[in-house]
Amino acid sequence: MVTSSGNVRPLWEPSEELQQQANVTQYMQWLATEKGLHFHSRAELWAWSVTKIEDFWASIWEYFHIQASHPYTAVLAERKMPGATWFPGAELNFAEHIFRNATTERPALLFRSERHALVEVSWEELSQKVGAIASALRAAGIERGDRVVAYMPNIPETLIAFLACASIGAIWSSCSPDFGTSSVIDRFKQIEPKVLFAVDGYQYGGKTFDRRAIVAELQQALPTVQKTVLFPYLLGEVEPIPESLQRTVTWSDMLKNPASLRFEQVPFDHPLWVLYSSGTTGLPKAIVQGHGGILIEHLKSLALDFNIKPNDRFFWFTTTGWMMWNLLLSCLLVGGVMLLYDGSPAYPDSGALWKFAQDTHMTFFGTSAAYIATCMKAGIEPGSTYDLSALRGLGSTGSPLPPEGFQWIYEHVRHDIWLASVSGGTDVCAAFVGGCVLLPVHLGELQCRALGAKVDAFDEQGQPLIDEVGELVITEPMPSMPLFFWNDPNGERYQESYFNMYPGIWRHGDWIKITPRGSAIIYGRSDSTINRMGIRMGSSEIYRVVEGLPEVLDSLMVGVEQPGGKYYMPLFVVLRENVQLDDELKAKIKARLRNNVSPHHVPDEIIAIPDVPRTLSGKKLEVPIKKLFMGVPVEKAVSRGALGNPQSLQFFVEFVNKIPH
After folding, report:
1. What is the pLDDT of residues 307-337, one digit of tens each?
2. pLDDT tens-digit map of 68-81
3. What one-character DSSP code corresponds to residue 400?
4. Interhelix angle for 181-191 vs 212-221, to 10°?
5. What's phi and psi for 459, nearest 5 deg?
6. How many CA atoms lie within 13 A of 335 on its CB side?
7. Are 326 and 318 in contact (CB under 8 A)?
8. Cis, bond preceding 348 (omega within 30 deg of 0)
9. What pTM was computed for the model?
10. Where would I find the beta strands (DSSP E) of 359-505?
11. CA geometry: angle at 150 spanning 86 and 96, to 5°?
């Protein structure tokens, strides 16, 4: 990846006025006045935040006036990973902190979809509906610790259901309805939910997708579900509930009995939600994060890292199956207005989201690097076509934003916009490296490491690197790190996922370079997780679907970040004897992946191979094959002596050499 170096002039620098008015500046002034701590730069503040971590997070608690019905007895019981226990003794509720910002001065959220014109939802309406849904859940016997899941798109009703769930101390989890059946079941079945919220269907790209049959499949596959709440998003209330759906009520049924909001007080580390990430083997990891950890991390992130202020209109183009939906809703914690969009970003044309930005007077536009690449290819000119005068910040995440993406934003969106290229993880529902309005933006670089995130680049021996590519590691605990994985009673899978390479050190699975100026460059995944359009999927999920076909004996998929924001995702298959990889079989494989995994994980190419390279212990050689595609010489990518079938490498060496560079 070509990036800036030396003293190349920044693409953007903050004005003196912006620096003085920044939230992080006000926080530093408070530290000076109240704590006698004087920091002369963002770099000094970061260094303090990751060395005096107890003092830093205690200051965040105090600065943001976190409300707890019981006080904490310590900030951090023991500084270790895994197993850090934050703010023991404290009891609070995440949803209660959302409603601290209820006001008649601004709406809580704005929403638009392909089927619905722009609407506002007031704080009063939000409060009434959350209260009613929470009361109905209580009446159905749902208590703190019970699981509530949603097969719902990015619409106001999903937010309402989540806040109702959180208010009573139940545990939330969601999947987008464009996920295939088996992907949803693989996730939800692990946590044994009692309630399922679902839509009857949705629209995307002008096409409608009826999901009632899939909801019936989910009911059959999730025997613990006692009640399904169906929101008639596609067909409307006039359509009766199908006979195939058992123990099902409508959304309007749940709203019939008004009730005031009540907030169950729960321990700081009481589970708030379950997110899903995927390794290379087994089911998706069910990552459990807590009320307090998410609350304190998101207050810090939205206010101090993203600089969101009351009245800001905050948007991220996301689905409910991506952690950015969870971060988006947290803008309500700092008084921001939540902007929701459901549908294709290219319908009715490539300017759909930019028109949404114009019509909502959006102040911060969050998206993925893949979407920016799509805009570049479409040749659109958002800055000259739409009124983006309210827009002051643009965020990009999901995969590395290439230098060409940086240039396009400053040339075709706004020359004076703050660009925050951000990288973090579902695992912590937060950023490790990202932006700060006090710092300049350099081509291809993430401005800085997030406050409270002790990020380093490590070599294989666990030594920190500067200006060299290494493994992204976190060397001090963060409050939003997973409490545990569901159904991982001894913590073995948790340990294996993050701490096996460097004991006591979190290895995230990204390649990173920390520059001498303190900025960072992300080079993509150092593990085999498929990360397309910001939607992460473990290869094992893909293999279960592909290898379930009678024609396929074995398979291997890699996802490769390429220059210009491109992402190449080939699927290699070993076929049964006398089976040909013709167009019909390719179409069959793609359809199966589209329907059972997701549309985002349909491969760019399907190639027949004689054998899948495996280690002596039988593991597929995903990361080394990915390295070959990224230009790493074969002798550096893999040790042939570690392979059970070293001859299988030759096909990939020859295949990669044929690809034009």
Report:
1. 999 999 999 999 998 899 999 999 999 999 9
2. 999 999 999 999 99
3. P
4. 40
5. -85, -175
6. 12
7. no
8. yes
9. 0.84
10. 364-368, 393-397, 418-421, 423-425, 430-434, 448-449, 455-458, 464-465, 469-474, 484-485
11. 45
Beta bridge partners of 538: none
Whether 360 has a pLDDT exceeding 60, the answer reads: yes
Domains of the chain: residue spans and CATH: 16-93+268-525 (3.40.50.12780), 101-264 (3.40.50.980), 533-658 (3.30.300.30)
Q: In angstroms, what CA-CA distances link 252 with 132, 150, 230, 236, 248?
A: 10, 16, 9, 11, 12
CB 134 within 8 A of CB 262: yes
Strands (E), 364-505: 364-368, 393-397, 418-421, 423-425, 430-434, 448-449, 455-458, 464-465, 469-474, 484-485
End-to-end CA distance of the chain: 13
Phi-psi region of 115 (alpha: psi -120 to 50; beta: other; left: phi over 0): alpha
Q: Please tell me the total number of residues recorded for the chain in this structure.
A: 661
Count CA within 13 A, CB hemisphere, residue 229: 23
Strand order in the sheet with 464-465: 464-465, 455-458, 469-474, 506-514, 520-525
DSSP three-state, residue 148: strand
Q: Which two tokens stand for residue 406?
A: 């940086």
Q: Let me know the angle formed at the C-alpha of 258 by 254 and 259, rounded to the nearest 5 degrees.
A: 105
List all residues 6 or more positions away from 5 whose beta carbon is below 8 Å from its beta carbon: none
- As beta bridge partners, residue 464 has 458
